[in-house]
Amino acid sequence: MALYRRETQKSVGFYAEKEFVEVLAKHLKKTRVSKSQFIRDAIAEKLAKEGIVVPEDLIVPLPPYSKSKDGKYVS
Question: From start to end of 4-52, where are the E strands?
């Protein structure tokens, strides 16, 4: 996993009950979806239900995803 993100990306975090996180982790392992992508999808789905359209390229960011320490992009 890369340590750096594009300057346009921001971290979003939240606290959840341990059991909730365990259920999520089990599901993600089974579906082979990253936690970040699952959360982006869930937020976009909720926003869509509330009438807010999020462009697809914000939901599924296009490569390159990250920069290495030497400034080169890695995906």
Answer: none
**Tokens for 1?**
């996993």
Tens digits of residue pLDDT in 23-57: 999 999 999 988 988 999 999 999 999 999 998 88
Is-contact 60 54, C-beta < 8 A? Answer: no
φ and ψ at residue 46, rounded to 5 degrees:
-65, -45
Contacts of 58 (CB under 8 A, 6+ apart): 44
Helix, coil or strand: residue 25:
helix
Q: What stretch of H or E contains 66?
A: strand 66-67
CA 17 to chain centre: 19
Q: How confident is the model at residue 1 (pLDDT cuts 50, 70, 90)?
A: very low
